[in-house]
Every structure is written in C-alpha cells, then in structure tokens.
Amino acid sequence: MDKLFRSRVDLETARKTFFDTIQPIKSIESIPIENAQSRVLASEVVADCDVPHYRRAAMDGYAVKAADTLGASTSSPIVFTLTEKDVTPDTCQRVHTGSAMPPGADAVVMLEDTRSMDGVVEVMAQVHPEKHVGGIGEDVAAGERLFSAGHQLRPWDLAVLASTGIVDVEVFHRPLVAIIPTGEEVVERGAPLEPGQVWETNSLMTASFVKKMGGIPRISKIVTDDPQLIEQSILAGSDADMIIISGGTSVGERDHVPAAIETLGELLVHGVAISPGKPTALGVVDNKPVLCMPGYPVAGLIALIVFGKEAIRILGHFPDRPPTVIRLPLKEKITSRQGYHTFVRVQIRQEEVEPLMVSGAGILSSVARADGYVVVPPNIEGYGAGTVVDVFLF
Asked: How many other β-carbons are positioned within 10 Å of the β-carbon of residue 236?
C-alpha cells in the first residue's frame, strides 16, 4: 500500500462502516450480585418469592380492626386496650414500621394520631381497612420479571435482587480491549528521556477510557515503527474483543499501522474528515474491530470519543445513553476547518462558553482544562460570538 490516505471519509460514513462490522459479545458468565455493579444481564431475572412474604406495618403506630375506629377524631377519641396477643374488637397492638401485622388486625393508626397511658390507647383518627399495611408481594410478587436481558445493573437493582434471595446472575463478559502503543519517539513512563523522546501516555488515557466505558483494557509493550513487529503485536492482540492501536496512522515513512491492518485483515477506512483526528484508521482483523488512533493525544482522544465509545458499547451490550449536552452562548468566535467536523475544546465560565483550542492536537493539557467540546459541522466556517451552541460535556 502506498503512503497516502485513502479517500477521505465523512464522519457518519466512517462510523456506520465501522460499527456495522461489530458483533456484540455472546459469551456469558455467572457472578455473585456483589460483583455485578454496571454489568449487563444476559438473561431475564424472575423473582422466586414474594417481597414482603408477610403482611407488614407500613408506619409506627397501633394495629387495630379498622371498623373499630369509625368516628374517631381529636375531639372524640375512641379508647382501645393495649394487648400483646391477637387483636380483637376494642384492642390494639403496638407495631413498628416493617413489623408483622398481628392476627386480627387489618389497619394501622399512626403513632401521632394516638395518646397512650397505663395500657390504654386513645385513637384520634379513623382508618380504613389496609390503611398503612403492606400486603404480601406488595414490593415484588413471586414470578414477576424483575429485569430483562440487556439491562445494565445499578446499585439499587442489586438491592432488589438481594431482597428476593437471588445470589448470582448471568451477565455478558466485559469487552477485552487490547491496547498497542507504537512509535520510535515514545518510551515507558519513568525512563530517562533523550532529546526527541516523550513518555508514552496514550495507553494510560486509552485504558482509563476503556474502563470508564465498561471494558477491560490490556496494554502491550511499546512497539517500534517496524512493520513486522506491528503485525506480530496485532496478531498477539487478536484474542481480545477489540484492538486499539495508538500512533503510526499517518502517511509518514514510519507510519506502518494501516498497511499492517490491510495485510492481516481489512482496512475499512483510513482518513476521516474530523479535526483533530484525520489520520484515524478503522479496520477488522480476525473478525475483531481495530481502531487506529492518531499518536497526537488530543486527536487520539477524539477518535476514542467518536469511534471507541460506541464500539465498546456495541460489544458489551451496554445501553445507548446520549451524552450530556448543555446549550450556552459563545464568549468568543470559533473558527473551523471547512469540510471537516471540527471538535473545539471549551471551558464554561459564568454561563458562557470560552473556546480553548481549535488546532493543537498535541496539546494534551488543553483537554484537562476543558469542560467539554463543541462540534462545528463541515458545512459551516465557524460560529460567531454570542451564538448559542451545544456543549458536549466530558
């Protein structure tokens, strides 16, 4: 393959081309619910028992026969005798929230609607049958479907599962993502730096991104710009569900990654109309999606946002949740690259959007200072000061 970009592909075409090749993970595992936070159910969960399995008091107060409270009021209280046995006419029993209802009682009078002294209780409010009483299965009924397959478990979901006695659940495996950093100029963090060298940080950013999306990252050693070594590293990573390669995607003499993808599998896209991030390449090796992100960290981050996030979501059966977007006016104008989706890093200051950088794909600190980004469509030259824009929050 010659050292040229393929025909530049617009963003939506690139996304559809790439995502259409991705098949969700089919393998599942059974895990304890204590470890199931944010995992995606592989099968529906049905309750085996009623919750609660007994009639219970829903308030602190006194269990009574509702009919005996007819006409009770603050000006005309009805007197009951306190008992610790079954409730009978004109008797009551002290109950607490969650207590089992005593036999004979069908309602609870709230504590604040009573006065008690020396074994006698004055009831100052009328109640109807089942008032402040929780029935069997009121929370969950036996045989009820709690969650469908594909549901991502939240902390309160785990509590519901526990309340029905469920111990383990079947979930899809989390996507394993092999991360391959490449480049002659990058060295392991902490190693002495020579002129022209930088510490390798893209794998750290990528691994953290993968974890945030619900995947499991696996970082390989740095691979130098050698075609054979790059191919070997890709093959070594093909046991994963997805491969993300950092660097080596442009058209320089040392950019061998797209050619390696084409040799080992199928290169779907090389060159996307996004700025920063044009050198992004997308492919498939051994039926596994491969995202080749540019070595410049900001460009790489944009590739992760627009391609990596959705790829991991599809693989892991994760629900499609839209990004958090707020609309605010621009403090200053934004320029953009005609024909490209331009991603502009911005800060939010006093209900206004302040652009940080349009260019500068290597200035990683600009992302750390940013609250989010604004996307300028390819058919617009930019936005003027005061324009209300969508800000996608990081």
From this structure: 14
